[in-house]
Amino acid sequence: MAATNAAVMVAALTAILQRLPGNSARRQRERLLLALSVFGSVTTVEATHFLDIMDPRARVCELRKRRYQIATVSVPRATECCAI
Prior knowledge:
Blueprint: H1 2-19, H2 25-39, H3 44-50, H4 56-65
Helix pairs in contact: 2-4
């Protein structure tokens, strides 16, 4: 079940990237906002790997300066090296 949800998430994030191509900060913010509106939350890893946002922290900071209310929640997850 979790693998199916992950596959759906990856497919949806990939579709967002295809819908809003480009690597400008503006375009990255647009992709992040769309993903947040669709899913409610996006991890830093998901934003980097699947939305092609090089530094999601910077985009979140820029959005907050534009008065978007975005919460940051630390969630322990295994890294690619399997460390938590």
